[in-house]
Every structure is written in C-alpha cells, then in structure tokens.
Amino acid sequence: MDPVAFVAERGGVVRVRALLDAGVAMAAVKRARRDGALTSPRNGWVAVPTADPVVRCAAELGVVITCVTRAERVGLWTFGGDRFHVAADPRHSLPRPTEARVHWARAVVPRPEGTLEDGIENTLVLVAECQPFEHALVVWESALRAGLVSKEILRSLPLRERVRRVLDAAQPFADSGLETVVVPRLRFLKLPLRRQVVLAGKPVDLLIGDRLVLQIDGGHHVGPQRVKDNLHDAELTLRGYHVIRVSYQQVIDDWPTVQQLIMIAVAQGLHLAR
After folding, report:
1. Which is deepest, 33, 209, 230, 264, by most CB within 10 Å?
2. What pLDDT is recorded for position 159?
C-alpha cells in the first residue's frame, strides 16, 4: 500500500499508527519521509506536503480544530473572528505557546484517537460555551438548517445550562444568520414573528404581525437579484403589506436605527391587517 496515497486520502495528516494498522510497512513510511513525499509535523504524525496548513498546525500542537473555526470550515454561518479555536486534552500541556483560543474542557462526545477536526456536536457545545448568545444561536440554527445535527440528539447529551439555553432557542427555519439575530431582539414587541413565510410566491425573511415585512439584504442583493427583490417588494405593497428592507451592515453595525424603524411602523399599526 502506498503510504503517500493513504495519507492524502485521509485528509493529508494522519498518525503513523494509522498507517501501520492499515498494513503499511514502517520501511515504506521512512522511505517516503526520506524522499520528502511525507513530512513529520510532530512525533508520531506524518503529512503530505500539500496538507491543509490549518490541519497540519493542529497536529503540530496536538489539538483538535473546534468551535467557530470548525463551524466556518464546514460552511456554517458565523460572525467570523481573528482567532483560531482549538480543543486540548486538559490532562496534557501544549508543546509550545500559541495565540489560538484553547478550550480545555472534556469533549461531550468522545473523540477517536487521531482526531484533528471536531465533530458537529462537540463543535456546537463549545460554540455555545464560548460565544455570545446571539452569535452561538446563529451557528446552531445554521447547523440545524443544514441537517448536520438534530435537536433530539443534542437534547440527549449532558449539556450545561448555558448550552441548553441555546438549544432551546434554536430553530432550523432561518435562511441566514441575520434572521436568527433579529428575532430575539424583537421579542419585546410581543407580536408574532414568523420567518420564511411565503408571500406573493416567495419567502420573506420576517413577517411581523400580519402585514409588516422585514427583508435583510446580504451580499447577493445586486444586479438581477436586486431587480427581483424590488419587484417582490412592489408586489407585497400592492397586496397590502408594508416592507422594510435593510442591509447586513445595518443589522450588525446600526441595529438601533433598524429597531427604531420597526417600532415606528408598529406604532403606526402597519403590522395589522386592514
């Protein structure tokens, strides 16, 4: 068995033990390392030269990629960040200092030996323990919507109160993370807040009450998409709905202004069926 192909097929970085267990001769591993076809990020590990540098770094540190870093890598909606989040065994120390955010907590779901990227359940638990509530909720709802995990499985795990609060609030209906942020912020209105309701043939981001529609534009709201969205807004207006359309930047950077617009609309009764 070709050791280089074996490593490449398994993500580019593996434990030497995995090669030996699969029947690869140690002599073949040493030859590949001598020829430069495999490198050693850490004692007991090998990697192909083209391995993902993030995964290679995890092997070097003896950690597991997790939390928001792992969430981003599987395509979940996050608010980003400038730090690398990893999990480490609380019984051991790291081989060198790191600027990464290290989570020393034990995994809720056991990690197999040689794991370099966390499973979705452990990832979500650490997101809930690490991030502000709204940010964590965005990640959880993104995972639920993508079908990567179910609330039933998450409920069966031994979760702390902070994590269960996110679990209880999470719903798989938001089309984007922004909707997840907006709904909790508007609950003080004590009005029905329905996401992705189909009106005039298309889903809207949020229907407040009976007639007030909030639409949130992402980076796709340009060109032909903008024309379609504007036409849909006009159709909604003709059908008696009131549309407030705001941007990603407004929700994230200027929420008080957005909230004021919605409160005035509600005060004017624009959320009521006429």
Report:
1. 209
2. 96
Assign 55 a pLDDT band (cuts: 50, 70, 90): very high
Report residue 175's pLDDT band, with 50, 70 and 90 as the boundaries.
low
Tell me the pLDDT band of 220, cut-offs 50, 70 and 90. Answer: low
Single-letter amino acid, residue 152: E
Q: What does the radius of gyration of the chain's CA atoms come to, in whole angstroms?
A: 24
In three-state form (DSSP H/G/I as H, E/B as E, the rest C), the secondary structure along 49-114 is: CCCCHHHHHHHHHCCEECHHHHHHHCCCCCCCCCCCEEECCCCCCCCCCCCCEEECCCCCCCCCCC
Sign of the C-alpha dihedral computed for residues 41, 43, 48 and 49 taken in this order = positive
Q: Which amino acid is at 42?
A: R
CA 251 to chain centre: 19
Q: Concatenated DSSP letters for 173-242?
A: T-SSHHHHHHHHHHGGG-S-EEEEEEETTEEEEEEETTTEEEEEE-TT-SHHHHHHHHHHHHHHHHTT-E
- pLDDT of 123-146, one tens digit each? 999 999 999 998 999 899 999 989
Kindly state the helix (H) or strand (E) to which residue 46 belongs, with its residue range: strand 45-47
For strand 242-247 and strand 85-87, is the pairing parallel, antiparallel, or unpaired?
A: unpaired
Is the CB of residue 209 less than 8 Å from the CB of residue 272?
yes
CB 82 within 8 A of CB 100: no
Integer Cα distance of 33 and 28 in angstroms:
9
Q: Report helix, strand or coil for 47.
A: strand
Cα 124 to its chain centre, rounded Å, is 8
What are the tens digits of pLDDT across the range 188-206? 999 999 988 999 999 999 9
